């Protein structure tokens, strides 16, 4: 399936920059957000308003106003409910647009500037060498014994680009740009060992899995190897977030790819808390979500389950509200 190159360009632009309209206050008005106060800082102005997401997220309208948008960065934040993000997200949520449409809508109103990744994430080292595909030539397909211990298949590893380091005897899990497939780096994983290469890689801006996949039901796990395991078990649309914290960008990538998401984060305090937070935040935005069933299972994650238990946990994934009423 070939896409038009102009669309690709827009997708890339919109995914990796934060367009800020030249007239932030006027653009807020156009989104139906009334600016109630302005607070001028040294190099920017904060526009205060009533939080537009408050009712959906907390069940109560914001009276205070708790919400502010920065004129320079375009970043918005609600001090009360935590609703926050780049300006383009406000447009997506306010007008029900996809990311690309929201980007174009802002561009039509005059882009003041775009905030690059570096500005939003100053900890990134700009001298970091760029990774190329050739770096993966050091690695080989995982050996049969390694596949066996994890319940994986060579086909599943090949589908997800999983490799093996013959020197360290660790798994190599490539991390790629979700729009272009460009290699950003990888996670090296062994027993009680993992390292991201390069350090500070933007894994929270992408997902592990088949990023070209689109379908009805996707599955979200924490660990990349668990996603490969799910795929090996014949479960379609398995992705991993690289940890219990699932970013806004990752959820948006998932929402673009499926209509129902099965949350299969780890069965521990961090995983369950994250699962509940994601549900509270993304259900009001129209993403249907089910929870993987850990009932009667002591395993911490899908990777620790027998084939039968894993298939059953997936088959019995449930909508949380049904469970709560019993
Ligand atoms: Zn709020």
Provide a descriptive summary of the structure in words.
- This protein has 326 residues and is an alpha+beta fold.
- The chain has helices at 5-16, 24-30, 54-58, 87-95, 99-108, 117-120, 144-150, 154-159, 224-232, 248-255, 269-282, 307-315, 320-324, and strands at 18-21, 35-40, 45-49, 67-70, 76-78, 84-85, 111-115, 163-165, 170-176, 183-190, 193-197, 208-209, 217-221, 238-240, 260-264, 288-291.
- It has 13 helices and 16 strands.
- A five-stranded antiparallel sheet has the order 2-3-4-5-6, covered by helices on one side.
- Strand 13 (217-221), helix 9 (224-232) and strand 14 (238-240) form a beta-alpha-beta unit.
- The protein is globular, with a radius of gyration of 21 Å.
- It starts with a helix and ends with a helix.
- Mean pLDDT is 85; it is low at 116-128.
- The structure holds zinc ion (ZN).
- The site of zinc ion has 10 residues, from loops.
């Amino acid at each position: 399936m070939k896409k038009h190159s102009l669309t690709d360009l827009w997708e890339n632009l919109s995914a990796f920059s934060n367009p800020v309209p030249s007239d932030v206050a006027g653009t807020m008005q156009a989104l139906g957000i009334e600016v109630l106060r302005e607070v001028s800082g040294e190099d920017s102005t904060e526009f205060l308003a009533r939080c537009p997401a408050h009712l959906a997220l907390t069940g109560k309208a914001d009276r205070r106003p708790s919400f502010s948008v920065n004129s320079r960065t375009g970043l918005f934040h609600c001090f009360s409910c935590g609703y926050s993000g780049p300006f383009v997200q406000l447009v997506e949520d306010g007008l029900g647009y996809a990311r690309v449409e929201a980007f174009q809508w802002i561009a039509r109103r005059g882009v003041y500037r775009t905030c690059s990744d570096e500005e939003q994430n100053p900890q990134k080292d700009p001298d970091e060498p760029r990774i190329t595909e050739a770096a993966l030539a050091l690695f080989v397909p995982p050996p049969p014994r390694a596949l066996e211990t994890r319940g994986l298949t060579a086909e599943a590893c090949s589908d997800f680009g999983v490799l093996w380091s013959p020197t360290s005897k660790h798994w190599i899990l490539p991390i790629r740009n979700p729009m272009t497939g460009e290699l950003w780096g990888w996670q090296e994983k062994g027993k009680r060992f993992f390292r991201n290469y390069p350090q500070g890689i933007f894994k929270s801006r992408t997902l592990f899995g088949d990023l070209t996949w689109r379908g009805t039901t996707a599955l979200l796990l924490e660990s990349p190897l668990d996603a490969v395991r799910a795929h090996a078990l014949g479960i379609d649309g398995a992705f991993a977030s690289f940890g219990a914290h699932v970013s806004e960008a990752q959820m948006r990538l998932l929402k673009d790819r499926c209509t129902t998401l099965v949350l299969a984060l780890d069965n521990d305090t961090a995983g369950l808390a994250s699962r509940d937070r994601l549900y509270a935040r993304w259900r009001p935005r129209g993403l249907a979500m089910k929870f993987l069933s850990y009932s009667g299972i002591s395993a911490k994650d899908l990777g620790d389950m027998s084939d039968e238990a894993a298939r059953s946990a997936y088959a019995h994934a449930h909508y949380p509200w049904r469970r709560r009423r019993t």
